[in-house]
């Protein structure tokens, strides 16, 4: 019995000794490992913390500071749909990629941005004559009887519809068109061509093209203004528009009037000093204080009235007529709304007045 107890005690001593050795060996190995890999271990812990933080941020909606500072161009470049508010207060969801746009009467601005519409505005079978070379092959939509029906417009499958004036959106048209594609409405894009071009560029992801076009036009207008000022001085320029319903003197707030009186800085008659336009008749004609006159036969439909007035003795007695300073303008682009038209008008005015 005593021998059995001794054997048991000896066995336990061996086991305990072996266990102690194992613990010591493991401790030594762990110590070596800690000294050799402490940087890696710390790095792994930090990486884990970073990853956890990133996951947490992602769950909260990502990097908020980046989202809050993104510009419309950056959002478009990222291929994301965005929401804008048009000039009538409609919220419009602009697709990330607009490849088919319908913007009647804004074809000039579209072409300046390097964009061709899916269809173009027309009066009967005639579109904007000065743009037809670039719009060759683009279907015409007749607006002479009103805006196209939703069914007719739907066949072109536009991604975006842009209406250049609020009158186009009246009588439920906006609601009908908005069901076909996102529809953006200007109050009057022709009232400020430069501003509307910049807006259109933003809508189509073409802001750089819009900026370049505007910079080029402003430089052209500035150079022309300098040339004209040396010849015209403080003399005045008038624009008379002959149309079937009457004859009017154009002011300086829109279309060719804006180009001549604001962009080129040429003086205007007192008859339209604070007006968009003024009616002109043979009785009023003697009051026209202008040394240079440009006449426009609106869409070639004012021929009869133009002949009646220009063949009268009152007309022939005008100083501008006597001095040979009356010029017939091309109605195709003098009544156009866009920088392509404006550039052509600038060239016409410089050539007519300075001979250059």
Account of the protein in words:
- The chain is α/β, with parallel strands linked by helices.
- It has two domains: 134 residues, Rossmann fold; 131 residues, Rossmann fold (3-Layer(aba) Sandwich), CATH 3.40.50.1980.
- It has a five-stranded mixed β-sheet with strand order 10-9-8-11-12. Strands 3-6-7 form a three-stranded parallel β-sheet. The protein has a two-stranded antiparallel ribbon with strand order 1-2.
- It is globular.
- The N terminus is likely disordered.
Helix-strand blueprint:
Layout: H1 2-59, H2 64-69, H3 72-77, E1 82-85, E2 91-94, E3 101-102, H4 107-112, E4 120-122, E5 140-142, H5 150-154, E6 160-163, H6 173-178, E7 183-185, H7 193-203, H8 207-232, E8 237-243, E9 246-250, H9 255-263, E10 277-279, E11 292-297, H10 303-310, H11 313-316, H12 319-322, E12 326-328, H13 331-334, H14 339-354
Parallel strand pairs: 3-6, 4-5, 6-7, 8-11, 11-12
Antiparallel strand pairs: 1-2, 8-9, 9-10
Helix pairs in contact: 7-8, 8-14, 9-14
Largest sheet: 5 strands, mixed
Averaging pLDDT over every residue, what do you get? 83
Question: Numbering strands along the chain, what is their spatial order in the largest sheet?
Answer: 10-9-8-11-12
CATH architecture identity of the largest domain: 3-Layer(aba) Sandwich
Number of strands: 12
Which runs of at least 5 residues are low in confidence (pLDDT < 50)?
A: 1-69
Please, how many domains? Answer: 2
Instruction: Please give the alpha-carbon distance between the first and last residues.
Output: 134 Å
How much helix is in the residues? 40-55%
Shape: globular
CATH topology of the largest domain: Rossmann fold
Structural class estimated from helices and strands: alpha/beta
| Count of helix runs | 14
């Amino acid at each position: 019995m005593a021998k059995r107890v001794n054997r048991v005690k000896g066995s336990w001593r061996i086991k305990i000794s072996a266990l102690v050795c194992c613990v010591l060996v493991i401790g030594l190995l762990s110590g070596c490992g800690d000294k050799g890999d402490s940087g890696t271990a710390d790095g792994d812990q930090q990486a884990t913390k970073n990853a956890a933080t990133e996951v947490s941020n992602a769950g909260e909606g990502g990097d908020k500071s980046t989202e809050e500072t993104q510009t419309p161009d950056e959002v478009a470049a990222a291929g994301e749909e965005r929401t804008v508010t048009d000039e009538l207060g409609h919220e419009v969801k602009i697709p990330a990629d607009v490849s088919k746009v319908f913007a009647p009467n804004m074809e000039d601005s579209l072409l300046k941005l390097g964009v061709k519409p899916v269809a173009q505005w027309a009066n009967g079978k005639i579109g904007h004559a000065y743009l037809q070379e670039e719009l060759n092959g683009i279907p015409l939509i007749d607006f002479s009887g009103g805006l196209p029906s939703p069914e007719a417009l739907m066949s072109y499958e536009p991604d975006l519809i842009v209406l250049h004036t609020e009158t186009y959106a009246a009588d439920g048209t906006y609601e009908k068109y908005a069901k076909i594609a996102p529809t953006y409405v200007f109050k009057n894009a022709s009232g400020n061509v430069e501003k509307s071009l910049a807006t259109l560029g933003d809508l189509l992801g073409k802001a750089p093209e819009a900026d370049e076009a505007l910079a080029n036009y402003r430089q052209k207008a500035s150079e022309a203004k300098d040339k004209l000022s040396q010849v015209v001085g403080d003399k005045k320029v008038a624009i008379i528009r002959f149309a079937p319903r009457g004859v009017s003197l154009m002011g300086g707030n829109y279309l060719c009037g804006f180009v001549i009186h604001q962009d080129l800085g040429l003086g205007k008659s007192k008859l339209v000093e604070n007006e968009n336009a003024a009616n002109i008749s043979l009785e009023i004609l003697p009051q026209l204080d202008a040394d240079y006159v440009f006449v426009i036969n609106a869409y070639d439909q004012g021929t009869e009235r133009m002949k009646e007035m220009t063949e009268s003795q009152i007309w022939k007695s005008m100083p501008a007529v006597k001095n040979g300073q009356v010029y017939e303008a091309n109605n195709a682009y003098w009544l156009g709304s866009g920088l392509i038209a404006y550039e052509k008008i600038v060239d016409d005015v410089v050539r007519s007045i300075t001979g250059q």
